[in-house]
Design goal:
Blueprint lengths: L14 H4 L8 H4 L11 E9 L6 H17 L2 E6 L5 E7 L2 H7 L9 E7 L3 H13 L1
Antiparallel strand pairs: 1-3, 1-4, 2-3
């Protein structure tokens, strides 16, 4: 069997490679621990796909109760099951630590694979797009 080869590419225009130390927006601003400046929260689209089939009704009951608790607390603002298995939700968190607790450290996190994407308000996204077009 041939050896596995990995290739890493780098971009010389990446701010960290050019010495640009400007404050960052997004995930690096979210950080961990204390949360975002001004106590702002950030929303993430979290898609969970089972790694192994859930066959225990007690585990499903525990997940159902946990999801309801998170919805009542405002940490999960929307949740849906996916046709074919798994689910997705919008999680509203102040820190990456909190996001990690809700996903990987949740009651069945060890049985799921997660795809996590930061969300931006639609009007903000449109405004930023218009700024780019006029620049």
């Amino acid at each position: 069997m041939p050896p596995v080869t990995t290739t890493t590419t780098s971009s010389p225009t990446h701010p960290r490679q050019t010495g640009d130390e400007r404050p960052r927006r997004g995930l690096t601003a979210l950080g961990s621990g204390k949360g975002r400046p001004g106590g702002k929260r950030m929303k993430f689209l979290v898609t969970a796909t089972p790694i192994v089939p859930l066959t225990d009704a007690a585990v499903m009951d525990k997940l159902t109760d946990w999801m309801r608790e998170q919805q009542q607390a405002g940490r999960i603002t929307m949740a849906y099951g996916l046709v074919g298995g798994g689910g997705c939700s919008v999680m509203d968190v102040a820190t990456l630590d909190e996001l990690h607790e809700l996903t990987a450290l949740g009651p069945i996190g060890a049985y799921l694979s997660f795809d996590i994407r930061p969300l931006i308000e639609l009007d903000t996204s449109f405004a930023m797009g218009r700024e780019q077009l006029s620049a």
